[in-house]
Amino acid sequence: MDGLGSLGFVADVVVLDYGSGNLRSVERALQRAGATVEVTSDRDAALAADGLVVPGVGAFAACMAGLRAVRGDKIIDDRLAGGRPVLGICVGMQVLFERGVEHGEESAGCAQWPGTVDRLEADVLPHMGWNTVRAPARSRLFAGLDADARFYFVHSYAARSWTLEPTPPFLPPQVTWAVHGKEFVAAVENGPLWATQFHPEKSGDAGAALLSNWLETLR
Predict the structure, then answer these.
(1) Any idea of its EC number (predicted)?
(2) How far apart are CA 31 and CA 10, in angstroms?
(3) Is-contact 213 11, C-beta < 8 A?
(4) Residue 165 pLDDT
(5) Active-site residue among 90, 127, 180, 189?
(6) Is 103 a catalytic residue?
(7) What is the chain's Cα-based Rg?
């Protein structure tokens, strides 16, 4: 993939380092998609970048503790207050909701979106492997991708409902769904805040195209 560099624009992206894993695979995937990438917890760099990516693997509570330790929740809030793009991935998406419930314990999230992340209702957990999604027709994140494109998931928890109502004159969020046992939120496009429950960096050509779509919005 030629990436955005061939179009005369190279996005500057920070992958937020708050102790969560999977940072380097996200970094490499963004570089292949055409971005200049820095992995850091530096506040100034994170605020100045064209785009901020918040990855996440593991438990909701542990990821929130790591985020707070580097004031990542405040960095996200400050970027969004200025209309600056943020992309959450996997648990980096989950922590954007109000709360997470794991093993009967509730943890506060970043509260960018209302709702709770809790255990999937499925016979087999974790939900691990490739799955299709149902994206809205106006999605920019999935633009150009086939309806049967598959993405790589590995999780046992997710947001299973969406309750945020649009406030005029803002456009309604674009919510993408997937099914494992029952429906859950697979991706969201909400103004400058986008997120995926799946791992685009592990999703082959479909994931690379999706990351390029996000980078294109950073122009």
Answers:
(1) 4.3.2.10, 3.5.1.2
(2) 10
(3) no
(4) 82
(5) 90
(6) no
(7) 16
Structural contact between residues 84 and 55, judged by C-beta atoms closer than 8 angstroms: no
90 is catalytic: yes
The three-state secondary structure class of 22 is coil
| Angle 166-167-172 from CA coordinates, rounded to 5° | 30
The terminus-to-terminus CA distance of the chain in angstroms comes to: 18
Q: Whole-model pTM?
A: 0.94
Domains and CATH numbers, the chain: 4-216 (3.40.50.880)
C-alpha closest to that of 166 among 189, 141, 142, 196:
189
9 secondary structure, DSSP code = -
Catalytic residue among 127, 155, 180, 199: 199
Which stretches of 74-156 are assigned E, i.e. beta strand?
86-89, 97-102, 105-108, 113-119, 127-132, 150-155
110 among known catalytic residues: no
- CA distances to 37, 74, 120, 146, 154 from 158, rounded to whole Å, are 28, 23, 6, 24, 11
pLDDT in tens, 145-167: 999 999 999 999 999 999 998 77
Crossing angle between the packed helical segments 204-216 and 23-32, to the nearest 10 degrees = 70
* Structure tokens, 215: 């980078």
pLDDT digits (tens, 9 = 90+) for 54-101: 999 999 999 999 999 999 999 999 999 999 999 999 999 999 999 999
- Assigned token pair, 80: 């969004």
CA distance 199 to 29: 11
d(CA 109, CA 117): 9
